[in-house]
Design a protein that fits this description.
The chain is α/β, with parallel strands linked by helices. 30% of the residues lie in helices and 30% in strands. Strands 1, 2, 3, 4, 5 and 6 form a six-stranded mixed β-sheet that branches. A hairpin with a 2-residue loop joins strand 3 (64-75) and strand 4 (78-80). The longest helix has 17 residues, at 41-57.
Length: 121
């Protein structure tokens, strides 16, 4: 049976994967989450999910499959980053008041021989 690794330390993602009843391990991906210049929120989300999966897969056994995922909030076609402080969180929430915010979630399943399956919701 192949190894399955969740490339995330998110308790929420871990709980979701546990519902499948499959054995898996967890690894922290070492991934820079800084958006690239002029990168759309959709492209950012997909790139980070892939990067996280590939970062963990790079040091894994040959029969390993890795699940990478990322979520980005989008306001006015711009990604909203993590606020970092209480004051910044309040300011961010105030900027979103009365606006439509879209949450994009991407997942990437990366496996042997360069196999990659990706989805965006």
């Amino acid at each position: 049976m192949p190894n399955l690794v969740l490339a995330s330390t998110s308790i929420y993602r871990r709980t979701l994967l546990e519902r499948l009843g499959l054995p898996f391990t967890v690894a922290r991906p070492d991934t820079d989450e800084t958006p690239l210049p002029d990168e759309s929120p959709q492209a950012l989300t997909e790139r980070l999910a892939l990067a996280k999966a590939e970062a963990v897969l790079a040091g894994a056994a040959d029969d390993t499959w890795v699940i990478g995922s990322d979520q980005v909030a989008e306001l006015d076609s711009r990604p909203l980053g993590k606020p970092g402080s209480h004051a910044a969180a309040v300011a961010q929430l105030q900027s979103m008041s009365g606006c439509q915010v879209r949450f994009l979630t991407a997942v990437c399943l990366a496996g042997p021989a360069g196999r990659r399956l990706q989805a965006l919701d």
